[in-house]
Amino acid sequence: MTAATADALVVFGLTGDLARRSTLPALYDLTQQGLLPCPVVGVGRRAFSREELVRHATEAITAAKKKSVDEKVLHELLAHMSYVGGDAEEGPLYDRLRVALGDAETPIFYLATPPSMFDEVADELATEGLVSERSRLVVEKPFGTDLASARELNRRLTAIFPEERLFRIDHFLGKEPVQDIMYLRFANALFEPIWNREHVESIQITMAEDFGVEDRGPFYDPVGALRDVVQNHLLQVLALVAMEPPSGDTDAIPRRRADVFRAMPAADPSLAVRGQYAGYREIEGVRSDSDTETFVALRLEIENWRWAGVPILVRAGKALARTATEIVVRLQRVPQLQWGAHRLDSPGHDDIVLRIGRHAGMSIFVRAKTPGKEVSQPVSLDLDFAEELGEPPGPYERLLADALRGDSTLFPRWEVIEETWRIVQPILDAPTSIEPYERGSWGPASADAITEEHGGWREPQAQQ
Question: In which domain, by residue range, is 31 found?
Answer without folding.
Answer: 8-140
